[in-house]
Amino acid sequence: MLRRFEHVRRTTERLVAPLAVEDTVVQSMPDVSPTKWHLAHTTWFFEAFILVPHAPGYRAFDAAYHHLFNSYYETAGRMHPRTQRGLLSRPTLEDVLRYRHHVEDAVGELMSGATAEPEVLRRVELGLQHEQQHQELILMDILHVLSCNPTEPSYRTDLDAGDGGREGAAGDPAFLEFEGGLVSCGVDPARPGFAFDNETPRHQAFVLPFVLADRLVTNGDWMRFCAEGGYERPELWLADGLAWVRAHGIRGPLHWRFEGDAPVAEYTLGGRVPLDPWRPVAHVSFYEADAFARFSGARLPTEWEWELAAASVDPDAGNFLDDDRLRAQPASGRGLRQLFGDVWEWTGSAYLPYPGFRPLPGTLGEYNGKFMSGQQVLRGGACVTPRGHVRATYRNFFQSSQRWMFAGLRLAKDLG
């Protein structure tokens, strides 16, 4: 566990290494947090939930950090407003890195003790899973920050394009049949390893027979949607979605670049690149995904359909952060592909508690449960998700209009 702790913490700092100090302090919109804040908040998590309650004699690095870097844990005390994180020019990045190392030393000492408490180890694992979530957040946030710069700088210039396998994305997707029936959903309590509380309890859901696309929707598919007026056709849109499109002048995925009415390029962590029709479309909202599905004579899968399809797929076999491409890849081969990695997949399911759900006790119960309103479930992970972090039961969630994350979609249809 100590080696894993050190690896995850070093991975976070490796992701930050290509950035200038100035990059780490920018907050480009309310949903985005500065990179410096992510570095501090993930450290605060270990300090607040492990060291303070479980390390006798631990001395906080700076008492002010407790409220500066608390994210949303109301029962842990006051917090600095989320929309004002970009105003925190102090503490400096150097201060935050010293804070990280101070906490790491204390956690390492606690874990190296002769009798590390099971509760300490459980919380360390939760803290590591939390930090892996923030590794993804760091990348999606800095992509948004840099995309707002008119010079369109690159986060990195040495990323592997990894553009093989285009033959698997050509033509219309094939639809694979699933019988449905009474299926078990959520984490099996006998399954070894970590799971978040929102993946529990294991329960049964009835799923009608359905078909699921064998690949993700591509940029080329989306270009056809744009060319045929998809953003201007009210019959395709939910009422809130149409109002959102009109209010914000939406005409394509978040990071697409247009010349006149034609989409020609995409902004990525490797900078501006020509729009590749074979790659999965990314950075679309639930509203857009739902409209595209209707345009295609299809729908979004429910989260239970997606989980049923994914149950027999290796969750580590996709394109993840560890592959160091940081960009969705074209489909390759045949059969059910791209269920894990590349882009998170919107489902048609609202983010709600499973029957019998109970949040974790105490302040940690605020981690997932209190957000079970007004959000949609996404499944599968993305090209910026650490390998091994997701599984078939993992539930991500965002609001219907949000799209700065690496989100795409796969189509489903009723069978019969």
Describe it:
The chain has 416 residues and is of the alpha+beta class. It folds into two domains: 2-147; 166-414, paralog of FGE (formylglycine-generating enzyme) (Alpha-Beta Complex). Helices cover 30% and strands 12% of the residues. It contains nine helices and twelve strands. The protein has helices at residues 2-16, 35-54, 65-68, 93-111, 118-147, 219-227, 239-248, 286-295, 303-310, and strands at 175-178, 181-185, 203-207, 210-213, 256-259, 262-268, 271-274, 344-350, 376-379, 396-398, 407-408, 412-414. The strands form four sheets. A four-stranded mixed beta sheet has the order 10-9-8-11. A three-stranded antiparallel beta sheet has the order 1-4-12, covered by helices on one side. Helix 1 runs parallel beside helix 5 (118-147), helix 2 packs parallel to helix 4 and helix 2 packs antiparallel against helix 5. The chain is globular. 41% of the residues are buried.
Key features of this structure:
3-stranded antiparallel β-sheet, alpha+beta, 2 domains, 4-stranded mixed β-sheet, 416 residues, paralog of FGE (formylglycine-generating enzyme)
Write the layout of secondary structure elements.
Blueprint (H helix, E strand, L loop, with lengths): L1 H15 L18 H20 L10 H4 L24 H19 L6 H30 L27 E4 L2 E5 L17 E5 L2 E4 L5 H9 L11 H10 L7 E4 L2 E7 L2 E4 L11 H10 L7 H8 L33 E7 L25 E4 L16 E3 L8 E2 L3 E3 L2
Parallel strand pairs: 8-11
Antiparallel strand pairs: 1-4, 2-3, 4-12, 5-6, 6-7, 8-9, 9-10
Helix pairs in contact: 1-5, 2-4, 2-5
